[in-house]
Amino acid sequence: MEKQMKAVWSILVMTTIWLTMNSSKINNQADEQHQINEAVNRMVQTLEQRESDLAAKTDEVTFEQAFAEARAELGDNNVFTWNGNTYTTNYEEKETYVFPSGDVVGIWVRNSNDDDDYCTTNDRDECGICGGDGQSVWYADRDADGLGDINTQMKSCEQPSWTMK
């Protein structure tokens, strides 16, 4: 019985020591959690302040500034929102936007000076390609090795068909 009492006392002493050592850790964790909560709250307040500052700044930005920023960031053929309205990032001379669905949005203008309204450069080559380079030079390749004969060539808009004679 005396051995059993010593064992129980040993267990109680060990438990007391463990609780004493770990109670400071538990208190430290509570302090750390409080510090974490304060840091998170500061970050949320900072983020809310930045959003508020950005909203105020957006009201001060002119359309020209908003367009320039959107154009620099997105490139052409995109849209951006300014003061609740949606605009294209295209310049006026290229005022079309192609939606992912394939629909094209254009504008109305006050002149009719466009020689070819379906070609932005107004210079179709002899192959009918807007801004194209014209006919290509094609070389005969009798042995089908991918290398043509410089002495046998022709110009054409499309690859000519080959007939053996």
Task: Describe the structure in brief.
The chain has 165 residues and is of the alpha+beta class. Helix content is 43%, strand content 15%.
What's the helix and strand layout?
Blueprint: H1 2-60, H2 63-74, E1 79-82, E2 85-88, E3 97-98, E4 104-105, E5 136-140, E6 149-156
Cα end-to-end separation: 117 Å
Structure summary, number of beta strands: 6
Helix percent reads 40-55%
Principal-axis shape: elongated
Secondary-structure element pattern, one letter each: HHEEEEEE
Strand content: 15-25%
Structural class: alpha+beta
Largest sheet, spatial ordering of strands: 1-2
* Main sheet attributes: strand count, strand direction, barrel closure: 2 strands, antiparallel
Mean pLDDT: 76
Using only C-alpha atoms, the radius of gyration works out to 38 Å
Number of helices: 2
Low-confidence stretches: none
Description:
- This protein has about 160 residues and is α+β, with helices and mostly antiparallel strands.
- About 45% of the residues lie in helices and about 15% in strands.
- Among the domains are: about 1-60; about 60-110, no CATH class.
- It has helices at about 1-60, 65-75, and strands at about 80, 85-90, 95-100, 105, 135-140, 150-155.
- The protein has a two-stranded antiparallel sheet. Strands 3-4 form a two-stranded antiparallel ribbon.
- It is elongated and about 115 Å long.
Features:
single chain; 165 residues; alpha+beta; two-stranded antiparallel sheet; 2 helices; 15% strand
